[in-house]
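WARN retry 2 of 3 for item q-0093 after timeout on previous attempt; input resubmitted unchanged.
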Amino acid sequence: MKKILVVAHAPSQNTQAMVDAVIEGICHPELSGVTVSWLPPLQAQSQQVIECDGIILGTTENLGYMSGALKDFFDRIYYPCLELCQGKPMATFIRAGHDGTGTKRAIDSICTGLKWRPVMETLICRGPWQEDFLPACQELGTTFAAGLEAGIF
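OK item q-0093 returned
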């Protein structure tokens, strides 16, 4: 079984719905070779990152940057994971009230330093809340899980 860790900041009902949609996608009935666990960034530890086969990061856009909670996560796990997690497949989703580019750039920079391997284009859900964000999040979860299960990632 491949282990997927979702580390996502979900401070609102809408962002929690996005996390739930990602998890629902990972748990697609045709995928039986993956398991998933979700942790808020302030609860996630380096050992959980080390033990997973792939990681999906989720955050809100806060002042053109990732949430402080996700930044705290990176600060705590960076050095413990640096040598042990190189090449780890990862994907990102961002709930952006504006454009999300600063948030994406910051996450990409840290993940490049960690030598994690982005296997999908970052999903940026921009502007006012839209119900269409949820199917996109679900598709991200399903695609990531299917690729990991098949050994593509």
